[in-house]
Every structure is written in structure tokens, then in C-alpha cells.
Amino acid sequence: MANLTEIRRTAARWITEPLKTVLVKSRLKPNNLTWIALAISIIAAGAIAANQLLIGGILVLLSGLFDILDGALARLTNQATRFGALLDSTFDRISDAIVFLGLLALFIRSEAVLEVVLIFLALISALLTSYVRARAEGLGINCSVGLFTRTERVIILALGLLLSPLCKFSILIVLVVMIVLGFITVGQRLVYVRQQTKGK
Predict the structure, then answer these.
(1) SS3 at position 118
(2) Distance of alpha carbon 146 from alpha carbon 95, whole angstroms
(3) What's the distance, CA 96 to chain centroid?
């Protein structure tokens, strides 16, 4: 688990390091980037609902990038605040839900019942993954462990969208992967918290 967490941190640093100077000189506030990430997610959802899946995939990745950059900018400029962290987390959940809503709008029109059910389950697993971490941290336990965090979820979903012109089952496959790995992560976090609270 620790190795996975470190890999994610290293990857985030690798992505944000070249943008440090640009971020600082831009005079943007971390919360500005949080709002931009949400706005891009809303546009991505609209593109997905309109069956523009390639564009939607690119926008999902772009939104994820801004989601990484807001935290990086906050740390670089010593502007990290508890409210900023709460806003970022809240907007992440909204972004997740709005993108899934775009998928839902796409598949409801074609009466694809299986995909609609899978979208619902994928959203539940995504929200539960975040909820367990938030609840654990409310108990004073750092719970960033797990196989499938939001970073992986964004990348996998974007890949499914980007590959959809080549494989008509790519979104279906991605949804199944997200559900399975999402619920595995929920289980991992519950087990971790259980271990941390034994005898307490």
C-alpha cells in the first residue's frame, strides 16, 4: 500500500514539476484551479452526453490535471487552507457525479440497461471509496491506502472514452473494471481502518 501511495506522489510531482514556474507566475489562486477543474468536468459531461467521446476523454484528463495542479499550487505558494482542501474534495465528488451523469444521458437514449446499471454501480463505488477515506480521517486516521483511487479512476475512464472509436465495448469494460477495483479499494480501506482501531 505504501508503495502505491509513493508511486502516486512521485507521478504527481513528475507532472507538476515542469509547471511550477508557470503556476507561480500565473498569479492564479489554488481555488481558481479547483473551479476550472469543475468547469472542465461539466463540459466533458456535455461532450459525453452528445456522444463526442474522444473530446470527452481529453477533457476528463484535462480536468484531472487541474485537480492535481490546485494542490500543487497551494503547497508551492503556501496557500494551503483547510477550506481549500474541503472545496477540492467536494468538487471532486461533483466532478465524478457529473461525468457519470453524462454517461448516463448517453446510454439512457439508447436504452442500454446494462450500461445504465453499471454506471450506477461505478458511481456508488467511487463515492464509497472517497467516503471511507473521509470518515476515517474524521476519526484521525490517514486512509490514503488502496488499489484504485481517484487518480486511477480518472485515467481509466478517460482511456475508455478515448478508445471508444476503436472498440465499441471499451466503456463497458472500463465500467466493470472501475466497479471491481473500486469495491476492492473500499474493502482495503475498511480493513486498514479496522487494523488501526483494534482495541480502541
Answers:
(1) helix
(2) 21
(3) 6
Tell me the residue length of the chain. 200
Q: In the chain, which ranges are continuous DSSP H helix?
A: 2-16, 20-26, 30-49, 53-76, 82-109, 113-138, 150-163, 170-196
The answer to whether residues 30 and 70 touch, using CB atoms and an 8 Å cutoff, is yes
Q: Give the pLDDT score at 124.
A: 95
pLDDT at 2: 46
Neighbouring C-beta atoms of residue 54, cutoff 10 Å: 13
Alpha-carbon distance 122 to 173, whole Å?
A: 12
* Confidence (pLDDT) at 79: 82
Q: Scan for cell 466493470, then name that residue.
A: 176
pTM, entire model: 0.88
Mean pLDDT by 10 residues, the chain (200 residues): 59 67 77 94 97 96 89 80 90 95 93 92 95 92 88 93 90 95 95 86
Task: List the domains of the chain with CATH numbers.
Answer: 2-194 (1.20.120.1760)
C-alpha angle 75-10-84 in degrees, rounded to nearest 5: 30
Query: What one-letter code names the amino acid at 196?
Result: Q
Beta carbons of 158 and 67 less than 8 angstroms apart: no
Q: What is the pLDDT of residue 40?
A: 97
Nearest alpha-carbon partner for 11 in 151, 118, 183, 165? 151
